[in-house]
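[job 4471] stage=fold_predict status=RUNNING
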Amino acid sequence: MDREQLKILILKDLKDGQEPKYQELDVDKNLFGEVVENMEESGLIKNSSVVRGGMGNVVQMAFLNHARITDFGLRYLEQNN
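[job 4471] inference complete, writing structure tokens
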């Protein structure tokens, strides 16, 4: 799965009131965290949190339990779905 597909799946889950989880999406935790960080920074979602640490500052956890899709994220989903 590429990053763009993962973004769409995360946005769909959030739109449906679900908490996206990397295990359920069958993707690597580090990739998932990087995409979530990118989505937060670009304004597609808000209230997410990614914890990094260890050698190479890799993703340890990604919290999306309070995350919400933004209006910009909804438009992005409509245009790219």
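[job 4471] summary: DSSP finds four helices and four strands in the chain.
[job 4471] exit 0
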